[in-house]
């Protein structure tokens, strides 16, 4: 019933509906975990020896315990806070830098556009994770530094998308018409061009968050992001990895890497689905026959 | 009738497009005068430079176009010497434009009311709700129910949108309106309605109008004077009735003969042979020489200038004067 109401209320149709709603559901779940971690989590995520070391998942420790006897389930719940904080902060940062530069470059054109495009394209030409690694290594660990390192990687994505859209939108007669009524450049950009670019930005934001989560996990996995003992999926994945084969006679400590890995996949999937779904809804040309 | 007072005087205007293939002289040394309250019809086929001329007057020629010479004297001041801020003050308030395609000349994401109030508040320091009242009054005048002020452009038909575009141009009671093919993308019924509306508003507001069109029938109904453009130049400038009675330039003559006429039989409908010249490589002499049935030696040697034949008539052709 609720699903029906949502789809009717927001005029969502086609395969975009399924993707968007599935993505939104996953994101809602992660949002609940992130916001309510202190209430849901049964243990302090950084407190050692709440049970013993390497206890397999059971009814007391849903996802087992790690080397230091910390509750993996609690760490997963709290870890989403670190991951989401970095992912959202870096996305926001690249958004507020990339979009205005893209608008400027596309609208002004000429030499300004060429210089800005050259700078952005040179950043874009690096593989994302490699650039993030280099920047994170330079800046040092920590949530703020990691957010900045990831933000730089994604600024060109916004820049290129916004610039391209502006170039096409500004050819519309209504932009010429706005100038013919004596509108200032600022008015033309913000009232006439920007609203027509917005749907594409929304799609990129969602896909960007998915990417940022992956990059954040990658950096933390490589030890360039979060420092111990802060709970973080990427970092926990790395800490658990040496013990994955387990010790002779006791079998594999599979829970140490399975749960953080699974969370990363689910979170990335959620934002990717939402992004793809929104893309189909907001850009009707991609919409298949309904 | 009061003494005619020139509102716009264009002198030797030159607008060139700097393309990769070379320099296109879209407006090549054009001069004319428009008196207050007068309608000038600017006629020519596609690519003759008539729209470029319209955009040049408010100095909004899209790149790679550039005004390279001439004077645009509007109400006593040369706009070529005005600063960009001064031009912004003039655009929309004193000189405004009606665009060709109402489907794309309105922002799809802005309400009709916002289009109108934005035009008004850009130039007048009044409150938003005052502007809204003005906008409603304007819609009423255009024959659109003021209740539809919160609709978006897609909820309007083509004809209604064009009414709104006309409303935008007239919102601040400008001294000069440039209408760039205002009815080209509309069907004939709507075209007639829009022209009727323009005529009515012209009388109500005592508008001065430049009507750019390739449809000679449109100017026949509305214009006091007609300028015929060919390949970037005015080839004939005349008052409307004499032009229709007795076209002087062979191009004008051919243009009038190529209009279907219900009273004449099918056989008399003529067309103009050949194509307009490539503006990148103009022929020596008269630009119309390759298509002109009367062309003689001189026409291939030097280019005729626009010369005065009688009080109201100018023509650029060696057959006259």
Give a written overview of the molecule.
The complex is a heterodimer of chains A (290) and B (321). By secondary structure, chain A is mainly α. Chain A has one domain (32-41, 56-286): MetI-like fold, CATH 1.10.3720.10. Chain A has helices spanning 2-9, 14-40, 72-108, 110-124, 128-139, 143-169, 173-180, 185-221, 233-240, 255-282. In chain A, helix 3 (72-108) packs antiparallel against helix 4 and helix 7 packs across helix 8. In chain A, 43% of the residues are buried. Residues 286-290 of chain A have low confidence and may be disordered. With 321 residues, chain B is an alpha/beta fold. Chain B has helices at 50-57, 84-90, 112-123, 128-141, 158-170, 188-205, 216-222, 240-245, 250-257; strands at 6-19, 22-35, 39-43, 65-74, 77-78, 95-98, 176-180, 209-213, 225-230, 233-239, 307-310, 313-315. In chain B, helix 3 crosses helix 4 and helix 5 packs parallel to helix 6. The longest helix of chain B has 18 residues, at 188-205. The mean pLDDT of chain B is 86. The interface between A and B is medium-sized, with 18 and 28 residues.
Strand order of the largest sheet of chain B: 6-7-8-3-9-10-12-11
Task: Give the radius of gyration of chain A.
Answer: 22 Å
Look at the structure and name the CATH superfamily of chain A: MetI-like
CATH architecture of chain A: Orthogonal Bundle
What is the number of beta strands of chain B?
Answer: 12
The oligomeric state of the chains shown is: heterodimer
The geometry of chain A reads as: elongated
What structural category arises from helix and sheet content of chain A? mainly alpha
Determine the structural class of chain B based on helices, strands and strand pairing. Answer: alpha/beta
Strand content of chain B: 15-25%
Residue share in β-strands of chain A? under 5%
Q: Secondary-structure element sequence of chain B? A: EEEHEEHEHHHEHEHEEHHEE
* First-to-last CA distance of chain A: 22 Å
Mean pLDDT score of chain B, rounded? 86
């Amino acid at each position: 019933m609720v699903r029906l109401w949502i789809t009717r209320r927001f005029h969502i149709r086609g395969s975009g509906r399924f993707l968007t709603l599935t993505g939104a559901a996953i994101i809602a779940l992660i949002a609940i975990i992130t916001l309510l971690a202190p209430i849901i989590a049964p243990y302090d995520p950084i407190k050692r020896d709440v049970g013993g070391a390497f206890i397999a998942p059971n009814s007391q420790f849903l996802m087992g315990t790690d080397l230091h006897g910390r509750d993996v389930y609690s760490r997963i719940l709290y870890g989403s806070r670190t991951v989401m904080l970095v992912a959202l902060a870096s996305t926001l940062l690249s958004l507020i830098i990339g979009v205005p530069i893209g608008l400027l470059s596309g609208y002004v054109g000429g030499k300004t556009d060429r210089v800005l495009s050259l700078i952005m394209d040179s950043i874009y030409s690096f593989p994302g994770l490699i650039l993030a690694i280099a920047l994170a290594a330079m800046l040092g660990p920590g949530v703020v530094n990691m957010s900045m390192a990831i933000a730089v990687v994604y600024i060109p994505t916004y820049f290129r998308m916004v610039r391209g859209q502006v170039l096409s939108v500004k050819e519309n007669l209504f932009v010429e018409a706005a100038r013919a009524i004596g509108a200032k450049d600022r008015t033309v950009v913000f009232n006439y061009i920007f609203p027509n670019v917005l749907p594409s930005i929304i799609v990129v934001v969602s896909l960007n968050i998915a990417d940022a989560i992956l990059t954040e996990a990658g950096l933390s996995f490589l030890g360039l992001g979060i420092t111990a003992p802060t709970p973080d999926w990427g970092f926990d994945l790395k800490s658990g990895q040496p013990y994955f084969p387990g010790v002779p006679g006791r079998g594999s400590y599979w829970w140490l890497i399975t749960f953080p890995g699974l969370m990363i996949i689910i979170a990335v999937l959620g934002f990717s689905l939402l992004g793809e779904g929104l893309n189909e809804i907001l850009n009707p040309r991609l919409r298949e026959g309904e | 009738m009061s003494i005619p007072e020139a509102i716009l005087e264009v002198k030797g205007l030159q607008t060139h497009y700097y393309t990769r293939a070379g320099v296109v002289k879209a407006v090549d040394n054009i001069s004319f005068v428009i008196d207050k309250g007068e309608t000038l019809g600017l006629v020519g086929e596609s690519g003759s430079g008539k729209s470029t001329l319209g955009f040049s007057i408010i100095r909004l020629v899209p790149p790679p176009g550039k005004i390279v010479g001439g004077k645009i004297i509007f109400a006593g001041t040369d706009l070529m010497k005005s600063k960009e801020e001064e031009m912004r003050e003039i655009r929309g308030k004193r000189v405004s434009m009606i665009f060709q395609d109402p489907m794309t000349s309105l922002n799809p994401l802005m309400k009709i009311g916002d289009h109108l109030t934005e035009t008004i508040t850009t130039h007048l320091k009044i409150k938003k709700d005052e502007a809204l009242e003005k906008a409603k009054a304007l819609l009423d005048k255009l024959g659109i129910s003021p209740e539809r002020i919160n609709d978006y452009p897609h909820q309007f038909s083509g004809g209604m949108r064009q009414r709104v575009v006309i409303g935008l141009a007239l919102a601040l009671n400008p001294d000069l309106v440039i209408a760039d093919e205002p009815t080209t993308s509309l069907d004939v019924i709507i075209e007639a309605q829009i022209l009727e509306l323009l005529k009515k508003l012209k009388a109500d507001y005592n508008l001065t109008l430049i009507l750019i069109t390739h449809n000679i029938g449109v100017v026949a109904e509305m214009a006091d004077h007609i300028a015929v453009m060919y390949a970037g130049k005015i080839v004939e400038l005349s008052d409307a009735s004499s032009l229709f009675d007795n076209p002087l330039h062979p191009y004008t003559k051919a243009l009038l003969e190529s209009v279907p006429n219900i009273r004449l039989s099918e056989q008399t409908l003529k067309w103009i042979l050949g194509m307009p010249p490539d503006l990148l490589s103009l022929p020596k002499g008269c630009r119309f020489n390759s298509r002109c049935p009367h062309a003689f030696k001189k026409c291939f040697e030097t280019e005729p200038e626009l010369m005065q034949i009688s009080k109201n008539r100018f023509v650029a052709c060696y057959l006259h004067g």
